[in-house]
Amino acid sequence: MRRYWLLFAQAVTIALAAWMVVAAVRPGWLEQKPTQVQVGAPGKSVPMLQAPPRAATGSYRDAAAKAMPSVVNIYTSKASREAHPLLKDPLFRRFFGGRAPQDEQLASLGSGVIVSSDGYIVTNFHVIDGADAIEVGLADGRKAAATLVGTDPETDLAVIRIREGKLPVMVLGDPEQARVGDVVLAIGNPFGVGQTVTMGIISALGRNNLHINHVENFIQTDAAINFGNSGGALVDTNGHLLGINSAIYSQTGGSVGIGFAIPVSTAKSVLDAIVKNGHVVRGWIGIESQDITPEMADSFGLPKSSGAIIAGVVRGGPAARAGIQPGDILVAVAGKKVLDTNEMLKLIAQLEPGASVPMTILRQQRETTIDVKVGRRPRQAP
């Protein structure tokens, strides 16, 4: 019996060795041959070759299948054709391809992402702005009336809600772990043709000073984003939500490889605030600032170029009452380092109004910590 087992083991070893040699030298011999199929009526059939089924390599089908059910179409209707004044702004139109969302039409079409089993959907503010009625079309064919929960024009985000059961919920990703060059998928309903998935990479992170929103921290991507994709999902290769597609840079109305998405971290904070308060409350101390350039640092003899120089102080505002003066350099807020003006605005916006917060300033090359009682940021006009 032992002899038979030894012979069997030797035979298996020889067979595996032969298979490896053939796989290395003549891999084509191991490929499954196409099968011949007949097309047409008996006697008049046309012989054709049918490729055998095989697993797709380099495909993102799993990520798309995971994320697509959670992306919805949003239909809005208005009683008036009167457009919002912002839609007439040439710069705003520039970022929307010369055609502003909802301009010159009674019904508009956009996208949204289901982020809660309770029916909360995150979309863009400009998708539902001024709508008298909102309807949501789910990927499974269901349609439901939606109610507006709240908006945040400063980030161009809005939250709506539907009352439906068994809703597919998008899993939130971590945009802080995203890097330039990562593959991403954009999911939405471009031009109303139906749900569409496009692929690209992350082209840049932390894009700001684009003058699209008051609060900007965009993920830039070359995944095709077109009119109707607004409010849709930007997902990673695991099908997890990284951002809400918001705008494109185009002079033709079509994608030219420069699209912008709002990070999901921003969308989540806005969602939480709207669900809790009905609107977003941001901290404010009443200052105007500008970035410190290396040339400015050399000119004023500053030891470092990070921080934000205080260019102006609102009279009677929180900063003025605390003793902050024009020319001071804000280097830290509540112990968190200020890298530039955008970082400063983000840190201050996250503060709780009414709280007393330590802020570190540099004055005449000496650091001083001042406690500032944070105020509530005035609501910005969209």
- Output the helix-strand order: HEEHEHEEHEEEEEEEEEHEEHEHEEHEEE
| Number of E strands | 22
**How would you sum up the global shape?**
extended
- What CATH architecture of the largest domain do you see? Beta Barrel
Kindly name the structural category: alpha+beta
List the helices and strands and how they pair.
Blueprint: H1 2-25, E1 35-39, E2 46-50, H2 61-67, E3 71-77, H3 90-95, E4 107-114, E5 120-124, H4 125-128, E6 133-137, E7 143-152, E8 157-162, E9 183-188, E10 196-207, E11 218-221, E12 233-235, E13 241-248, E14 259-263, H5 264-277, E15 283-284, E16 287-291, H6 294-300, E17 308-313, H7 318-322, E18 329-333, E19 336-337, H8 341-349, E20 356-363, E21 366-373, E22 375-376
Antiparallel strand pairs: 1-2, 3-4, 3-6, 4-5, 5-8, 6-7, 7-8, 9-10, 9-12, 10-11, 11-14, 12-13, 13-14, 15-22, 16-17, 17-18, 18-19, 18-20, 20-21
Fold and architecture overview:
This protein has 382 residues and is an alpha+beta fold. The chain has two domains: 62-277, Thrombin, subunit H; 283-376, Pdz3 Domain (Roll). It has eight helices and 22 strands. It has helices at 2-25, 61-67, 90-95, 125-128, 264-277, 294-300, 318-322, 341-349; strands at residues 35-39, 46-50, 71-77, 107-114, 120-124, 133-137, 143-152, 157-162, 183-188, 196-207, 218-221, 233-235, 241-248, 259-263, 283-284, 287-291, 308-313, 329-333, 336-337, 356-363, 366-373, 375-376. The strands form five sheets. It has a six-stranded antiparallel barrel. The protein has a six-stranded antiparallel barrel with strand order 9-10-11-14-13-12. Strands 16, 17, 18, 19, 20 and 21 form a six-stranded antiparallel sheet that branches. It is extended, with a radius of gyration of 28 Å.
